[in-house]
Specification:
341 residues; alpha/beta; Rossmann fold; 7-stranded parallel β-sheet; two-stranded parallel sheet; 12 helices; binds nicotinamide-adenine-dinucleotide; binds thymidine-5'-diphospho-beta-D-xylose; NAD; lyase; NAD(P)-bd_dom_sf
């Protein structure tokens, strides 16, 4: 396969490229990335000199650059996005631009280039919020009900991808997955923020009462799922991908991290809640399990410990990030006093 991976310098995209080069060494990969604050070519050091890997510094909103990049491509795997909910609340325009307009540019160009597969990476957040006392889970049939500028922009992109399939026959697949965690995740998201703050001896900010629930998916399990969808998934279909069978609220996840790092609960700091904070996400991943044989390789504790080990062993990677522009964002998001309640 000749793949174009958009957003390949970000967290999931770079894990996906590293995974792909390892498991499909005969394939070629073009990484097309704008290198926003979230893009980091450091993540790809170990493969950057391979003859079948090329990096293109480009914006998915730039039609000419996208058309040029697609010249010999048969498969597009679309990760590029603005991905952080809190940033979408502070300023939504880049989310509309990249996630909606950028996806549209990519769809048009992919259709014209005649790609054999357009795989769109989306999120469970498009389905809205479940009740914490409910046992219901999101499935491929759950109606869309996005509630943040981020999830609304991702929902729009999903609708566009489906429209290009139904109207023009673009051969697409979509995956809607839950919260990812693992190596190379930017320390603005809960798990890497909690791990790195704890290592630094800082408090971990927990929004609201900490009872919000997320479904946690280890990034390598996610990459394996996308691989299966590309190899065996049905054109036009959507697959939900989740990482757990059981609900874990944010407090439980943070307490696990603190305990694995030998810290006590005094490191938890309850801060002002996120506006419109979705209460619970939970994924029923029966379809991808039954149809494609996918399941997570390990449980959350095992993957969480592996993730913590990675952050302990790669401090230069995240300390460098946390010493830059990140500090301005952190102050704006958490306030001078840490946004305490
Ligand atoms: P990320 O923020 O770590 O990386 C995004 C990457 O996209 C960066 O490398 C950035 O430079 C690039 N990018 C941004 N705008 C671009 C543009 N206009 N043109 C080209 N490149 C651009 O994101 P992530 O966490 O790796 O998420 C990847 C995808 O997976 C996103 O589509 C996101 O919505 C989806 N997703 C993420 C999660 C999660 O938990 N992280 C869960 C579900 C779905
Ligand atoms: O400091 C924090 N304190 C806190 O309590 C942060 C950053 C988050 N939280 C809470 C909010 C959520 O309930 O933790 C939970 C997880 O938050 P994030 O890591 O910001 O992820 P979330 O908002 O759930 O969205 C993530 O999963 C779905 C990704 O950022 C999205 O890109 C993806 O689509």
């Amino acid at each position: 396969m000749n793949l174009l991976v958009t957003g390949g310098a970000g967290f999931i995209g770079s894990n996906f490229i590293l995974y792909w080069m390892r498991t499909h060494p005969e394939d070629s990969v073009i990484n097309f990335d704008k290198l926003t604050y979230a893009g980091n070519l450091e993540n790809l050091k170990e493969i950057e000199n391979l003859p079948n890997y090329v990096f293109i510094h480009g914006d998915i909103c730039d039609t000419n650059a996208v058309i040029k990049a697609l010249a010999d491509v048969d498969t597009v795997v679309h990760f590029a996005a603005e991905s952080h909910v809190d940033r979408s609340i502070l300023e939504s325009s880049p989310f509309i631009q990249t996630n909606i307009v950028g996806t549209h540019v990519l769809l048009e160009a992919s259709l014209k280039a005649g790609v054999k597969r357009f795989h769109h990476v989306s999120t469970d957040e498009v389905f809205g919020s479940l009740d914490i006392h409910d046992s219901k889970k999101f499935t491929e049939a759950t109606p869309y009900d996005p509630r943040s500028p981020y999830s609304a922009s991702k929902a729009s992109s999903d609708h566009l991808v489906r429209a290009y399939y139904h109207t023009y026959g673009l051969p697409m697949t979509i995956t809607n997955c839950s919260n990812n965690y693992g190596p190379y995740q930017f320390p603005e998201k809960l798990i890497p923020l909690a791990i790195t703050n704890s290592i630094e001896g800082k408090k971990v900010p927990v929004y609201g009462d900490g009872f919000n629930i997320r479904d946690w998916l280890y990034v390598e399990d996610h990459c394996r799922a996308i691989d299966l969808v590309l190899q065996k998934g049905k054109i036009g279909e959507t697959y939900c991908i989740g990482g757990t069978d059981q609900d874990f609220n944010n407090l439980t996840i943070v307490k696990k991290i603190l305990s694995f790092l030998g810290k006590d609960e005094s490191f938890i700091e309850f801060v002002k809640d996120r506006p419109g904070h979705d209460r619970r996400y939970a994924i029923n991943w029966d379809k991808i399990h039954k149809e494609l044989g996918w399941k997570p390789l390990h449980d959350v504790d095992t993957w969480l410990m592996k993730t913590i080990e990675w952050y302990k062993n790669n401090q230069q990677w995240w300390r460098h990030i946390k010493s830059g522009e990140y500090q301005t964002y952190y102050k704006e998001q958490y306030g001078r006093n840490g946004g305490k309640t």
